[in-house]
Amino acid sequence: MIELEPKSQTSFYESVISYFDKAAKHTGLHPGLLEQIKVCNAVYRMHFPVKIGNEYRVIEAYRVQHSHHRTPTKGGIRFSNHVNQEEVMALATLMTFKCAIVDVPFGGAKGGVKINPWEYTPSQVEKITRRYTSELVRRNMIGPSVDVPAPDYGTGSREMAWIYDTYRTFNGDDIDAAGCVTGKPVTQHGIRGRTEATGRGVYYGIREACNSREDMKELGLEPGIAGKTMIVQGLGNVGSYTSMISQDEGDVKIIGVAEVEGAIYKESGIDIHDLLRFRKETGSILGYPGATVFEKKDRRAVLEMECDILVPAALENQITMENAHNIKAKIIAEAANGPVTSKAEEVLLKKGVIIIPDLYLNAGGVTVSYFEWLKNLSHMRFGRMEKRFNQQTYQNLVDLVERLTGHSIGERERAMVARGADEIDLVRSGLEETMISSYHQIREIMKRKRKIEDLRTAAFVSAINKISSDYLSLGIFP
Ligand code: NAD
């Protein structure tokens, strides 16, 4: 008999804790140490007034620092009507493990402001963002060596620029002030490649999983990402870049898309650039030529259509006991945080679905945020020192090859070989390396510990082991 979750579902935080507990059993670590690694170190809830038109609104907001085993702490800021303390705690907890998995030396944190940003004008959102930032400054909860926010659901580079500017107003003499927040516009001390980073990382992670012959054989699929079908939920920052890069660089066929207004399905494939243009012009994905429509109330049904890869890239708790049994995708790529509840995961794993977990798969954002933070602290663009030197060295090599072989190398080939790396090349290369090596670290744990049968548990074990060694080296725990 199917065990249905109550209407409220397993909460996001309960799911994260249950994933942690499942993995903790495989570590053999002291229970006290595991408890310290699990709990949120600091939870701040605040209320502040903002004048909107002629009225005052009291805004509820949070910043949670999950772990101080490494500082600064790091994690995005979410603007959403659904923000609540447990949600921010769940997201902050995930951040700690995410950073550990991709070897980014931060503790986890997260912020949330309980507003629907689309109900406010840009100048009202600016007012709220600046006021939230000054609350963080007053509590010493933001700063390049303290706690470094970034974008998340409902926020982007615009909000990060306001946060930086507000922080700078209070800390005019902090030479590293630009490192107080990441995801800033490139013209405001941001880094090239940050906006696409989470989606690009999701693509690298999916590609790596699809390259595993063993796993693809078990799913009855050919190895390699090319030609695989994909359904995406959410066309925001993460969902749109994941789709565009999967289509353009991975030759993936997007056959379904869900957004707030409804969902569409087209077996012959949806050109994602076309769809994004269509939505910009019409304000909706519905009505996209040749696609079957799912009205708003039925939009989740598209997640149940047959496909190779299902990418939930919107919010948590999207695959629950209500729909897990109907999911036909062979791979679920968790681009969003917490899209699958822990109970739904049990059902999916029994069905043989491979779940590429959020704490690994969407870590591309924090990885490139780390690069941005390093750039801010070094006060120099990546590639500035070595680009010309490398370019000249490669030119000399090409000249030498020409001289020794007597063959001349064409202009196109020369331009391809003899070039120095720009910031964007280095960021993408660093991100790709991170996603590939972290995936193999996780797979290695599955190989070594035969009792671990899913990627999420292996990812948690990898992270817990790394964090525990920090605590153990401090001598606090036996
Ligand atoms: P976003 O605000 O840019 O986009 C979210 C999109 O999802 C929006 O287009 C929204 O309309 C859509 N959406 C909301 N509810 C939906 C529903 N029920 N069905 C279909 N679509 C729906 O947010 P984002 O930054 O892309 O974040 C998405 C997810 O990725 C979140 O879980 C976030 O925590 C996670 N994440 C984001 C980043 C980042 O760098 N932005 C990094 C790591 C993880």
Core attributes:
478 residues; 16 helices; Rossmann fold; 12 strands; 45% helix; five-stranded mixed sheet; alpha/beta; seven-stranded mixed sheet; disordered N terminus
* Range of strand content: 5-15%
CATH class of the largest domain: Alpha Beta
CATH architecture of the largest domain: 3-Layer(aba) Sandwich
Largest sheet: 7 strands, mixed
The total of beta strands comes to: 12
Mean residue pLDDT: 96
The CATH homologous superfamily name of the largest domain equals NAD(P)-binding Rossmann-like Domain
Radius of gyration: 23 Å
Q: Tally the helices: what do you get?
A: 16
What is the end-to-end distance?
45 Å
Spatial order of the strands forming the largest sheet: 9-8-7-6-10-11-12
Q: Determine the CATH topology of the largest domain.
A: Rossmann fold
- Going by helix content, strand content and strand pairing, the class is alpha/beta
Provide the succession of SSEs. Answer: HHEEEHEHEHHHEHEEHEEEHEHHHHHH
Ranges with pLDDT <50 over ≥5 residues?
1-8
Please state the overall shape, judged from the principal axes of the Cα atoms. Answer: globular
Distinct small molecules: nicotinamide-adenine-dinucleotide
The residue fraction in helices comes out at 40-55%
Q: How many distinct domains? A: 3
